């Protein structure tokens, strides 16, 4: 059994689809039925790279969107060995403590932000359920805004400083830590995409200050 998380609202995942259309034969002018083939390899590679298939980056009204100082919760669950029959087994809370825009010099790096702006985000995760849960932020935090499509915001900057958020949490355990994210500009949304519930999910969204 593997533990997964289930978000409050589900931004859809983009699928790579190849269409193969057969040609008609004989005197029949009707085209042969269209066959749709899904490239599983490409699907897996894009599942974390797109928090929403909608052209609008704004989360839906019912999605768990946190501004600085706010706390939200999301379900923790598990599936069977085939990745099916999901069931909720516990709950995690996350507090968006703060967000601070920083320069490379302020975080002690010579690397420039690939997308345009570093932001130091402080989060507190706590297991408020009855089963062990895992947090995986690296590679699972996407940023977008009204003019930029979703991009992976995670970096290795600041790794090793303070407590590590990416770990297993037993019931009652919590950690407060910092992440250095690379975003396009000030403002926008950061989506936590770690969810393998068959129905998909975005456990929470951070609204960055402008």
TrEMBL record:
InterPro entries: DUF4352, Immunoprotect_excell_Ig-like. Residues 49-61 have a biased composition (Low complexity). Residues 27-46 have a biased composition (Basic and acidic residues). PROSITE patterns: PROKAR_LIPOPROTEIN (PS51257). Pfam families: DUF4352 (PF11611). Keywords: Signal. It comes from the Bacteria. The keyword Signal applies. Residues 90-183 form the DUF4352 domain. This is DUF4352 domain-containing protein.
